Amino acid sequence: MLALEAAIKLGSKVKKLAMYEPPYNSEDAARQEWKEYRDNLNKFLAKDRRGDAVTLFMKFVGTPADQIAGMRKGPLWTMFEAVAPTLEYDAAATGSDRSVPTERASRVTASTLVMHGEAGHAFMKDTALALSRAIPNAEFRTLEGQTHNVAHEVIAPVLKEFFTK
Known about the structure:
Blueprint: H1 2-10, E1 16-20, H2 28-46, H3 50-60, H4 65-72, H5 77-82, H6 86-94, H7 102-105, E2 111-117, H8 122-134, E3 138-143, H9 152-164
Parallel strand pairs: 1-2, 2-3
Helix pairs in contact: 2-3
């Protein structure tokens, strides 16, 4: 999302842009869930309930409750709480309703590669496809067998090829 925004704002200064599964989702239910998430996130952060903000985020992205409970007891939890306020910035970058910003994306002038993982969520493919269609000089690519947690040995050669051609 940040790279997309940079490419929009910097125009011709950005020569190439690559995105993997930008987390936009224009489905009505997803947009409503996003609104509820942002409302609750803002409430937790306003009350400095950082642990609850992190938990909310983890639930939103699909982390199982038992894993979150274990993480809360682990040594890294204080680090997660320390960066919890940055969740507000991520939410702002995603937009008020999380819908795919095709109109804004159409202003990207850079050669762009938009990718998604074949084994990922369907909305990620829809998002990548919508962005690749909106951006004038974009290429759409599916990475076989990949989820949102793409393997570096799969994406690295794709990125190397894109940025060196």
